[in-house]
Fold this sequence. Notes:
The complex is a heterodimer of chains A (93) and B (472).
Chain A: H1 5-22, H2 29-40, H3 43-52, H4 57-87
Helix pairs in contact in A: 2-4, 3-4
Chain B: H1 2-23, H2 30-51, H3 58-77, H4 83-108, H5 115-142, H6 156-176, H7 182-202, H8 209-230, H9 234-257, H10 262-266, H11 274-278, H12 298-314, E1 317-322, H13 324-329, H14 332-344, E2 348-353, H15 363-370, E3 378-380, H16 381-384, E4 393-397, H17 406-409, E5 428-432, E6 454-456, H18 461-470
Amino acid sequence: MSDLFLPILLILAAVAGYKLISDVPSLLHTPLMSGMNALSGVTVSGALVATAFAVSTQSQVLGCAAVVLATINVAGGFLVTDRMLKMFKREKL
Amino acid sequence: MQENIYKLLDLACVIGIVSGIRLMNSPKTARRGNLVGAGCMLIAIIATLISNQIVPAKALLISMGLGAGIGCLLAVYVAMTQMPQLVALLNGFGGAASAIVAFVVLTGSTAAISGVTRLTGAIALVVGSVTFSGSIVAVAKLDGRITSLPIILRGHFILNLLTLMFIAIVIPVAAVASRNATIMLCVLPIVLGLIFGVLLAIRVGGADMPIAISLLNSLSGIAAATVGLTTSNFLVVAVGGIVGSAGIVLTKIMCRAMNSSIIDVLTGKTALSTTARASAGSVDAGTLSKTTQGVPTAESIAADIDEAGAVIGGAKKIIIVPGYGMALSQAQFQVKQILTRLEAKGKEVKFAIHPVAGRMPGHMNVLLAEAEVPYDKLCPMESVNDEFRDTDVALVVGANDVVNPAAKTASGTPIYGMPVLNVDEAAYVIICNKDTCPGYAGVKNPLYLPAKNIILLLGDAAETLGKLLEKL
């Protein structure tokens, strides 16, 4: 894969993020933000790989800490977003 | 071959996450969107485990279990009122995780690392550390552990500038440093990042929190995206990039709603200093009649509540304007009771939500949704602001700066030019605020001057509304 692939991907992702969020109504800004927050825990994927290939014990311990923190971010983020979204109800007619 | 399958799977997950975010456009589909995002993330994590043959590594599985457990406990047991803190805390964890990953890659791997890896690694260290320390300070502020007023150190601006300058020097140096120069490579970016995060966040005061929170949210995405570049991880780059730019968009929306720029917020221009706050009295619009205001007594308060009850009783159309005061006194439940009562009497009731009311983007909507106010009643400022003109009563619950008409006239004050809700155009304004002190921005509110069509009900909003409810 070419060296330019990831930077180009990053730019595409940034454009996608820009377009996606511009359409979200202010009503949902909090759940949106907390959902985004959960997604930023995607770094867990990097943490898993980095730790699996780490050699020294120190690196492995740190890597495990990163995995714990990122998983808290992911699990807590998605769950709390769901908890909030569950509360948004329409008027019963 | 197999590697390509996992690449395709990653791509599918990214597409899934994007479509999940698209579903967040509407409250009807948002919950599904969040589940789609979570599902894709789960698949992506499992794919990472299998494709890298990590499954036998027990320590990692235990770490994930531990993290998931703590995350679930936090999400389930934290009260809705503590949502801003929780979002900021989780955000800080994400930032810290990214910084640690970069650290592990830069120091731990035996393979040779390229300049690009070192460069992106150093950036991830800085941004992740800023996210972490900034978020932790924000949590402490939101949780009332440290003052929510801006804390300004002597020479704060210079300190910021110096830190930024050092960061600008350290990152390229780290990129070309030799492998053995681990300290330069890792410790300096971390320390500088941590310092900058603290400097950034302590400067931000309460009402600017929505901007700070969404900025930190964006930073956590940027940290993830750069770590993705460091580790050549397709998934992390794509998702981190989306989150980073999404956060910037949200930050821009918040800034527009306050008529300020991100620089203004970070340099504390949006709030007056304490001394200026004390002398801010001379800037009011002066359009309202100025008679001397008596000190409220128990009788006068009861009389005011009677009057407010009568005014609301005669009204056909009412717009309720919530602010951070509603969150503080937990008055959303009383607000909901008032809504039910008024609607039972055939009155038209709406809510006008200012984009930066509260402590995080969309804060008021979440609180009112918690109190089971249907979301179709929650109107954003742009769509409802012209309606105050033909509204009988504007009921303000704990909002100050966002309804302050001085924003239109008092040039030179921090809120000048900030779009506000036009409650002053309603036939009557009933204000349930704690006191008549200037809001966070320190600008006196002309609505507090005695006028025939304004009724001030001072005190705890939940209590006041409870009493008001009895009169309806």
